[in-house]
Design brief:
By secondary structure, this protein is an alpha/beta fold. The protein contains twelve helices and 14 strands. The strands form three sheets. The protein has a seven-stranded mixed beta sheet with strand order 1-7-6-5-4-2-3, sandwiched between helices. The longest helix has 39 residues, at 235-273.
């Protein structure tokens, strides 16, 4: 059964498994003790730190191990903000950061601080000049991921890092998705990552803080990991994480070329074989293994279940796959279609035959889901004259509001409007995206007694 969701968690690398089992026998003792078992554990911990630091591109004494990537992000942001509290309490970040960064920003604001979200282009990347414009005299910290976890777009970290350095603001880089593929370029100040993203065991994160960066760890003090990650180290998992990071780096150059070609094939074939689809993310500046596309008139949850039934494990950012009923904040910030969203992230070693079978199965699955929902299968017939129509889609979740719009757009003459009443948050994103794909005019959103009224003018 092909597993295509390595952006969530990569399968455990064989080297990680081997190192983990060995470390369970050799690394169970307290590395802070001076007797032989403790010394042996300390040697393993020091070797793991040196290997991880080499992969990150920092000094061993700049890197600590945490209990997860999320913990590393929270500790890194809190420590940097506290260390620079005399400068100010402003935080800058991109609108497409991982939820761990957004949650840290919200907590910072609740405690009296402030933050600015830098918007992204439709590709998902920030404009370095726009990011520089978000920096203030009282900015204590800036955050920018190295590559996006949902659409794969690589961020201009080196350019932003240079601008932050010029402004005297430290930059924290969330490198969870990219570190297995190579070091992060640029003059970053702090860096975080998570082992289960590259095939290490879950429960190990990395936090690197460059020398000279003002940093004050928050919470009760601890004696271990420079006081930045209290608690007893999970030494077997740390050893396995460092060993697997070195192993995947050795394979990364060749595997990146191969997977980039497979992802390129998915990007082109999906656009050819599946009608009414938008492939999102930067086509060039992207991670080699990840591709995301959104399908009009498709319930994302049903699509994922059907693909799972055919043996494919994929992920989604559609609102109809989440309990919040809101589309992914990443897709929302990009202004792209969210309904019927599919994220494919290929693990190292993915067979070309598995990708080909996925591309063979996908068009039929999408067509079946659309048929179930009563979606239009062809261009609408010539219209009967009408001044305008109102479609009541209140209480109906994505993709129904867009399906109902597509059904009736042909019933109004060119120049007339269709007003869709909807209270599903996804409609605010998906109706404008549909208009762009169908070359119709999105007039705008108007208040309504319930939900909102989305007005579309027929152009052709």
């Amino acid at each position: 059964m092909p597993y295509f969701d390595t952006a969530s968690a990569a399968p455990l690398h064989p080297v990680a498994r081997q190192a983990l089992l060995a470390a369970l026998d050799e690394g169970w003792a307290d590395p802070a003790r001076l007797y032989r078992e403790g010394r042996r554990a300390r040697l393993l911990l020091d070797a793991a730190r040196e290997a991880a630091a080499e992969a990150v591109g920092c000094r061993p004494d700049e890197l600590v191990f945490t209990s997860s990537g999320t913990t590393a992000v929270h500790a890194g942001i809190a420590g940097a903000l506290s260390g620079r509290r005399r400068v100010g309490r402003h935080l800058a970040l991109s609108a497409v950061e991982h939820s761990s960064v957004l949650h840290s920003a919200a907590a910072h604001e609740a405690a009296g601080g402030s933050f600015t979200e830098v918007p992204v282009e439709r590709s998902g990347a920030v404009d370095p000049a726009a990011y520089a414009g978000a920096l203030r005299a009282h900015t204590a910290l800036a955050c920018l991921q190295s590559a996006n976890h949902e659409v794969g777009t690589e961020q201009p970290v080196a350019e932003v890092a240079a601008l932050c350095a010029e402004a005297g603001v430290p930059l924290l880089v969330d490198a969870a998705q990219s570190l297995g593929w190579g070091p992060v370029a640029g003059r970053w100040s702090l860096l975080t990552a998570s082992a289960h993203k590259w095939g290490g065991p879950a429960g190990v994160g990395l936090l690197a803080v460059r020398k000279g960066v003002r940093f004050a760890p928050q919470g009760p003090a601890g004696e271990r990991e420079s006081g930045r990650a209290p608690g007893f180290e999970n030494l077997p998992a740390i050893v396995a994480a460092a060993a697997s990071l070195r192993a995947v780096r050795d394979e990364a150059a060749a595997e990146a070329v191969r997977l980039r070609a497979l992802v390129g094939r998915i990007r082109s074939v999906v656009a050819e074989r599946v009608g009414d689809v938008e492939v999102v993310g930067d086509p060039e500046r992207r991670l080699p293994h990840l591709v995301t596309f959104s399908c009009l008139y498709v319930d994302g949850e049903t699509l994922l279940h059907e693909l799972d039934r055919h043996g494919f494990s994929v992920s989604s950012g559609s609102s109809c796959t989440s309990s919040t009923l809101e589309p992914s904040h990443v897709l929302k910030a990009m202004g792209v279609l969210s309904e019927g969203n599919v994220r494919v992230s290929l693990p190292m070693g993915t067979a070309e035959a598995d990708v080909d079978r996925f591309l063979d199965v996908l068009p039929g699955v999408v067509a079946e889901v659309r048929e179930r929902l009563g979606a239009p299968v062809s261009a609408p017939p010539s219209p009967a004259p009408a001044a305008g129509l109102v479609v009541d889609a209140l209480g109906r979740r994505c993709p129904i509001p867009v399906i109902e719009l597509a059904k009736v757009i042909g019933e109004v003459p060119v120049g007339a409007t269709v007003t869709v009443l909807a209270d599903d948050e996804a409609a605010r994103l998906d109706i404008p995206a549909w208009c762009e794909m169908r070359e119709q005019e999105y007039v705008g959103e108007e208040p309504a007694d319930r939900g909102s009224a989305y007005v579309v003018r027929r152009l052709s």
